[in-house]
Amino acid sequence: MKAEDQPFYKKLTFNLLSIGILCVALIYGSDLIMPLLFAILLATLLLPITRFLVRKKFPKFLSIILPILLAMVVGGGIIYLLSSQIIHFMDDLPALKARFDEVGYSIQKWFRASTDMTIRKQNVYVKQAVDNLKEKAPQIAGVTVGSITGIVVYLFLVPIYTFLVLYYRGVIKKFLVKVFKNGSEENVREILTQSTTISQQFVSGLMIETTIVFVLNTAGFLILGIKYAVFLALLAALLNLIPYVGMLTANILCMVITLVTSNSTSEVLWVGAILALVQVIDNNITMPLIVGNRVRINALATIIGVLIGGALCGIPGMFLAIPALAVCKVICDRVTELKPWGELLGDSTDMEQSNGNKKKIKQVNN
Questions:
Q1: Spatial separation of the C-alpha atoms in residues 339 and 175, rounded to whole Å
Q2: How far is Cα 29 from Cα 23, in angstroms, rounded to an integer?
Q3: What does the alpha-carbon distance between residue 127 and residue 361 come to, in Å, rounded to a whole number?
Q4: Which of 63, 167, 228, 236 has the most C-beta neighbours closer than 10 Å?
Q5: By mean pLDDT, which of 142-151, 161-170, 253-262 is the weakest?
Q6: Rounded Cα gap, residues 294 and 336, in angstroms
Q7: Model pTM?
Q8: Per residue in 128-141, pLDDT tens?
């Protein structure tokens, strides 16, 4: 029986079962799968450089290892810049603590005037919260150690995986063509080509986007004379890598730090305004360059994908949600049984515009 002749409930059951197996694999195998996915994404970005070096008669090993070393140098530079800013920030913690206590007391007085809750009661609640936090300190420490260990694992595994993916990319491509061709080898090759192109557009566009956001944030904060302008701008730019959730977190952190380090409340509002303005520019100009006009994912699918990615794999899952959805969209659009899923992920406005253009063409031809 052909796939298109199967009953609807069998197709739905198969699709749901496949999604369930994928989710279970991500939950229990994320330590192995996520570094591999990041390596595949990095490999697609470095592939044009590798091909260029091969055309220049470089040995295959050097054609692969040189782009990886270049990527490691760039990543190391970003880590060094961020760590130096954090060290500078940590040096001022004693002064910041005194300022934080002063701001906290002002907030307590405002809260006392607004709610009739005495400062003593507020201190009792604060003490209880601190005691609860101390009880959970071992758990927090364990999570922190686990996070640091995870970063070390990523730094070790991703370059190795990237090298192996680039070295054996021909074997991997032949395997995928033979496994999924289903009588249409050309269709499979087209899916692989477009998936690679979209991944390259995503990573390169993301680098451009992050650089633009960092430069605009830095310029705005320096004009205002905000303390730790570079640190806050870099923090906001990196958090912006996580769609929707990251920018909201960046706004809160930057405004809180500015509140503690500034004597003017208006500067806090200006920081929020600058971040909001940069976000508008990012959403309307920079973000469309990430995937381009070839594949568009609607906002609802993006938000749900980011949340599901975060629930399954944490922050790495949130970061990989958009490229994963874009690749899924390419696959769904070219597999007959999965076309409804592709329409669900796509932007209906683009579909309506495309249909309108087709009608105009027909009218002209008639």
A1: 24
A2: 10
A3: 71
A4: 236
A5: 142-151
A6: 19
A7: 0.69
A8: 655 554 454 444 33
